[in-house]
Glycine cleavage system T protein (Aminomethyltransferase)
Amino acid sequence: MAAGEQYGAGPVGSRALMSLRVEKGYGSWSREYSPEYWPHEVGLDRLCKLQKGFLNKDSVQSVLENPAREQLVLLHLDEAGTEASNADATGGEPIFKDGKGIGRVTSGAYGYSVGMSLALGFVRDANPGDVVEVMVLGRPHRAVILEQPPFDPAGAILRG
């Protein structure tokens, strides 16, 4: 702890880490990343180097040639103009577009660094900029699918 003292570093809890992770749009194992989803469904296809050899390459290549079943997206839950509660999504909430169920939230938190209620989730047939609804505590919350994370979208802070 002494090494980080000059930077104000100190112990943090799991909810603080969740908030920071969601602000950056980072998934976590078992919530967003699991054997259930393929790399192109969670935005990790850029890490699959098909020009190199690896175990099960033919299967991965075959899957990547097909459209994603669902897409991992980052949502900004915007309470303006809705009958929203003062609560954030945490995971498991359904996502609707034009009254039709299109997905579910996997993680959510209030992003204190950016002042936004955010959620990660899997959706079908939706794109960045689309307005959807997330049911939080049984009440519809207007949400917008974000093109990029609100905190350090270019990764400049991470790279120093």
Q: What stands out?
A: The longest strand covers residues 100-111. The chain has one domain: 13-149. The radius of gyration is 17 Å.
